[in-house]
Amino acid sequence: MNSPETRWHLPRLHPGDTRRLARELDLPELLVRLLAARGYSTPGQIRQFLEPTGAQLHKPDTLPDIAPATRRVCSAVNNRERILVCGDYDVDGVTGTALLVSALRRLDADVISYLPHRATEGYGFSSRVVQFARAEGARLVITNDCGISDHERVAACNDSGIDVIITDHHEPGDYLPNALAVVNPKRADSQYPFRELSGVGVSFRVADALLRERNLPRNGFYNTMLELTAIGTVADVMPIIGENRILVKYGLEQLHQTKRVGLQLLKQVAQIKRKPTPRDIGFAIGPRLNAAGRLEDARLALQLLLEDDPAEARRIAELLDKHNRDRQKYQEDAVQEAIAQVESEGQTRHRALVVHSPNWHHGIVGLVAGKLMNRYYRPAVAVTIEHDAGIARGSMRSIPELNLSELLAVMKPICTKCGGHAAAGGFAVPLERFETLRQTIFEFANQRLT
């Protein structure tokens, strides 16, 4: 629902221009007006938006550090060094990990994977990843959808003689980790034309560069990897513009005829029988894959995406479907409690909302924040209070008018851990600093949003 305070900002469009474009492109004038309102005001821009093609994809060689990254991976493949792919526990991280593992298997690499546990490790490149890499004899770690702010873990790997390649799409800090390569289109020195790739989108470009380096055909690769890229991009709520629009368009086509047994069974339990749409990903496929990391272990979702055995894939798909139903119940209870808290505390006087409870599962607080953001149209923060551990862990969702990256920079000195991008973020803070953090969020939003 829309808050009574919702304000619409409509661009002023010259009627003559839209009529001329409509005639030139043979399109309804209303459609042209809608596209112009979104910034597509020339024939070329409109054609690219309505008819995206693979030829519009940029070559990956302008991504920062892509050359040393591909050289090091190829060296590891040639020398049979073990490679560890480390991802995040959300859909973007899981699909990106599945993509990189699949691509490296195609290169006949010695590859293993690791996904963190949401409840015991939290987001990012944790110290357990370093321990796991040492124990498994990995000589190279490749991160996906994480790592851009994990300086200490990268240093620990370096001290152990383990090289690190970071692939990430989150906003970098003031300085980069001392990794062998940091592939991120949001780096200040990036020459890559499109900044808004998802984590799996960055992994897709890295895998593409690897196949180019090895002079291997990429058509088959595109057929099996684009579906993963589309799922992660939509589920991570990335803007479906530019390259993302191309990747999602072709990814949906491949998802419709997927050869991945796990995705075939997941579509069955989600009752998707026609060609999938972004809505199918956002409301059926994505939530079921996410349910593993929210309530149990994200490795279950990764196993499904890599599974070849139909019977095992069906078992996992049905289990994820059950987890998703459980998640829906927990979420609805938490949302109602959060709304009651907002209203009883009169938080609508602020330009941001911060709700908290010891009863909420950490895996659903991001969903609670998203529901509040949509209901009240303002940045929302939902926090689970962990008294035994002495910490508060929260997730944040924001409206376009407030870039969370700027708020996260202000929060960083207060938190033990925080990160994210313009629309979403997460943090952990000692309980004794939680009220300070809460007031900081209120003050920041009240100053920025008028």
Automatic annotation (TrEMBL):
Top-level taxon in the UniProt lineage? Bacteria
Q: Boundaries of each DDH domain copy?
A: 82-233
Q: Which GO terms describe its biological process?
A: DNA recombination; DNA repair
GO terms, molecular function:
5'-3' exonuclease activity; nucleic acid binding
Official protein name in the record: Single-stranded-DNA-specific exonuclease RecJ
For the keyword Hydrolase, the answer is: yes
Taxon lineage: Bacteria, Bacteria division WOR-3
Q: Which InterPro entries match?
A: DDH_dom, DHH_sf, DHHA1_dom, RecJ, SSDNA_exonuclease_RecJ
Organism source for this protein? candidate division WOR-3 bacterium
Q: Name one Pfam family in it.
A: DHHA1
Listed A to Z, the keywords are: Exonuclease, Hydrolase, Nuclease
Using the record's annotation, list all stretches that form the DHHA1 domain.
Answer: 354-446
